[in-house]
């Protein structure tokens, strides 16, 4: 299908972008805009995890086409930082332990705010009826209902309380119109190619001179020492063999394979093409990493483009939201270790395997802190 231009207001700012007619609003918010607080659960309009406000009304963004929101005002869970009702709800949810895994929480908070502003002080039965479109598989709803009851107690309904004053700005490309805190980082871009490969573009900042960084990148064994789980077996000219061990909870894989390395000293660009297979689990990976080294003040910026394809059990972890968060954490660790190696400082850490759960824990901590407005 042919993508078409779309312009709408998201979290108080005008944004514009391109979307195919079949693209759901949830995918548009989570993808181009990087607003991953909107969660996708059932993708059938049943669970309510994807609930957002569209022109002030709670709607399922997994059932709403993005192009149908042309000119509309959309508010996601990230857009309530200055909203006093949402601030009260966040505090009450924390006090009443109204979440466990937290997956339903963004949609639950949006619905709870609608209850508080539209209905005001209502009884428990009404709250439960209003929450019937939001499913929580963890808490049994007791803490959620108690939190909402605390916030609505003594509150009067607010006429058109849902309306926000959108800032009248000239429509701009998404990356320019949205505030930096609400977007995926400018140094991270995920997409899919027509050949079935996923493409990840990112930037790595290293606190060392560009020449020193370029020389270090030419030493495969030294670079492997900066990446958790990586090991180099042989280096023969441009051909390299080695392995990468990763752990995704109960799934553990050790990819053994080979690659070819190409470098151009004049332009300070390089590429690594590789393929590997986990003999035990049956997962396979094919990919190419292209990079370019640029001076950046006193340090260095490395522009990286990764093309990859996963097959087998680990293919389920190739979705964009997981990949971008995971890659961001790995990039930070790699950059810290590379800087430490070049400056002689102690490395940030190189565990024997790449553990998704340890990085996921840090990701969840950051997201919960943002969700409840805590550092």
In what range is the share of β-strand residues? 25-35%
Low-confidence stretches: 160-186, 350-354
How does the helix and strand content classify structurally? Answer: alpha+beta
List SSEs in N-to-C order: EEHEEEHHHHHEEHHEEEEEEHEH
Number of strands: 14
Radius of gyration: 23 Å
The CATH class of the largest domain, by name, is: Alpha Beta
Biggest sheet, open or closed, and with what strands and sense? 9 strands, mixed
GO molecular function, one term: metal ion binding
InterPro entries: 2Fe-2S-bd, 2Fe-2S-bd_dom_sf, 2Fe-2S_ferredoxin-like_sf, 2Fe-2S_ferredoxin-type, 2Fe2S_fd_BS, Beta-grasp_dom_sf, CO_DH_gsu, Diverse_Oxidoreductases
Keywords: 2Fe-2S, Iron, Iron-sulfur, Metal-binding, Oxidoreductase
Organism: Oceanibaculum pacificum
Describe this protein's structure.
The protein has 375 residues and is α+β, with helices and mostly antiparallel strands. The chain has 2 domains: 1-183, Ubiquitin-like (UB roll), CATH 3.10.20.30; 188-367, START domain (Alpha-D-Glucose-1,6-Bisphosphate, Chain A, domain 4). The protein has helices spanning 25-30, 84-95, 105-119, 124-130, 142-152, 174-177, 210-217, 220-224, 320-343, 356-371, and strands at 4-10, 13-19, 51-54, 57-60, 73-75, 188-192, 198-206, 230-236, 239-248, 251-264, 269-277, 284-296, 299-311, 354-355. Strands 6, 7, 8, 9, 10, 11, 12, 13 and 14 form a 9-stranded mixed β-sheet that branches. A 5-stranded mixed β-sheet has the order 2-1-5-3-4. β10 (251-264) and β11 form a beta hairpin. The longest helix is centred in the C-terminal third of the chain and has 24 residues, at 320-343. It is elongated, with a radius of gyration of 23 Å. It starts with a strand and ends with a helix. The model is unreliable at 160-186 and 350-354 (pLDDT under 50).
